[in-house]
């Protein structure tokens, strides 16, 4: 039985090989006929598709132009804060401010941060404060006022900054730039700021510890990405049209999960933004502005401080060893925060 099945397998293998060879030869013949070698297959298929749909080409083209429109960012542009905390920085003189972009409806994420790393307000003798950055949940209704729930939340916690642009993924660059405007105008008294996403574990102790040894000028650190390829595939989350950004790689930038910078940078980046065309990928855009300014990003003092996801296997002292890690969602933060506290108590 074993033998016969082996020979059978052998036989099917040969049949398969022969079929393969036949198909390859057929393809090769077709290829020569159509001169495929000097004409890449994908462009051939594309031109064929275009020809087949010739009647619809103009329609497709106009569709494409309107869909690339959303890749143009309305910045520089004057946006106003409809919720502000203009006095807090002057009064509290923080060493570090944590700036957290979040959508207006995501109250849950804000509350979780207020219960976890947002509680760390004095660390290693340094004052730390957090602020949430919101856009408008709905531009259409011409709102110039925050929604009652957001207003109430703001009056209770005094940690919300809301600006009057539509809060959307493609507008995150606007959010970052408005954040820099606010830092430059209202919080330049602070020594450092960090832009940090809401679904993130943040070890404020390790962060302050690193910053106590960091330069106070021309400084930005985080997870530095170098030679990142510009994605031209329309299906990619980070698709970038050539018309918006023609280079094939991005300059170095600090990944958006959490980047830290000295407070002299906001004004410089804002100045650069008047010369550098905005792209919707916010961390890339900050990198583009830094390149324009000739400012070089600083790598963290060691590897493994800024982590893009919870590793599959983690040590007993993982949470006390990192600065940031991306979590799956903000609910996970509650659990991780408990584990972190245990590790702190265990003197990890
Ligand atoms: C293209 O449009 C013409 C005229 O409108 C029509 O006669 C023809 O069938 C169309 N061709 C295809 C492939 O749809
Ligand atoms: C970005 O915000 C501006 C200002 O509110 C708005 O006009 C535009 O439609 C928004 N863009 C996207 C893609 O949401």
How would the global form be characterised?
globular
**Ligand species:** 2-acetamido-2-deoxy-beta-D-glucopyranose
What is the number of domains?
A: 1
Number of strands: 13
Q: What can be said about the biggest beta sheet?
A: 8 strands, mixed
CATH topological fold name: Spore Coat Polysaccharide Biosynthesis Protein SpsA, Chain A
Distance between the termini: 61 Å
Order of helices and strands: HHHEHEHEEHEHEEHEEEEHHEEH
Q: Give the class from helix and strand content and strand pairing.
A: alpha/beta
Could you characterize the architecture of this molecule?
With 348 residues, the chain is α/β, with parallel strands linked by helices. The protein has a single domain, classed as Spore Coat Polysaccharide Biosynthesis Protein SpsA, Chain A (Alpha-Beta Complex), CATH 3.90.550. 41% of the residues lie in helices and 15% in strands. It has eleven helices and 13 strands. The strands form three sheets. Strands 1, 2, 3, 4, 5, 6, 8 and 11 form an eight-stranded mixed beta sheet that branches. The chain has a three-stranded mixed beta sheet with strand order 7-13-12. Strands 9-10 form a two-stranded antiparallel sheet. Strand 4, helix 6 and strand 5 form a beta-alpha-beta unit. Helix 7 crosses helix 9. It is globular, with a radius of gyration of 26 Å. The termini are far apart. The N terminus is likely disordered. The site of one 2-acetamido-2-deoxy-beta-D-glucopyranose has 8 residues, from strand 5.
């Amino acid at each position: 039985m074993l033998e016969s099945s082996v020979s059978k397998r052998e036989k099917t293998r040969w049949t398969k090989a022969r079929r393969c060879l036949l198909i390859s030869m057929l393809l090769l013949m077709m290829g020569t006929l159509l001169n495929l070698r000097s004409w890449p297959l994908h462009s051939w298929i594309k031109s064929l598709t275009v020809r087949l749909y010739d009647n619809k080409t103009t329609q497709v083209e106009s569709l494409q132009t309107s869909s690339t429109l959303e890749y143009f960012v309305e910045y520089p542009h004057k946006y106003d804060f409809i919720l502000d905390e203009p006095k807090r920085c002057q009064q509290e003189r923080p060493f570090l401010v944590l700036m957290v972009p979040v959508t207006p409806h995501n109250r849950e994420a804000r509350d979780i941060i207020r219960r976890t790393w947002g509680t760390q307000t004095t660390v290693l003798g340094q004052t730390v404060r957090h602020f949430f950055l919101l856009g408008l949940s709905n531009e259409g209704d011409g709102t110039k006022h925050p929604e009652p729930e957001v207003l109430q939340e703001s009056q209770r916690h005094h940690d919300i900054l809301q600006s009057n642009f539509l809060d959307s993924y493609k507008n995150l660059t606007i959010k970052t730039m408005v954040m820099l405007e606010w830092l430059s105008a209202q919080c330049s008294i602070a020594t450092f700021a960090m832009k940090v996403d809401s679904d993130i574990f943040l070890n404020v102790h390790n962060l302050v510890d690193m910053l106590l040894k960091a330069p106070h000028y021309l400084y930005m650190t985080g997870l530095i990405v170098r030679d990142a390829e510009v994605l031209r595939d329309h299906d990619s989350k980070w698709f970038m049209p050539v018309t918006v950004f023609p280079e094939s790689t991005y300059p170095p930038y600090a990944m958006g999960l959490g980047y830290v910078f000295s407070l002299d940078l906001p004004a410089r980046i804002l100045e650069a933004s008047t010369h550098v065309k905005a792209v919707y990928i916010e961390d890339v855009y900050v990198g583009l502005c830094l390149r324009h300014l000739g400012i070089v990003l600083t790598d963290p003092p060691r590897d493994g401080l800024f982590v893009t996801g919870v590793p599959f296997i983690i040590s007993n002292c993982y949470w006390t060893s990192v600065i940031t890690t991306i979590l799956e969602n903000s609910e996970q933060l509650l659990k991780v925060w408990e584990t972190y506290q245990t590790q702190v108590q265990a003197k990890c």
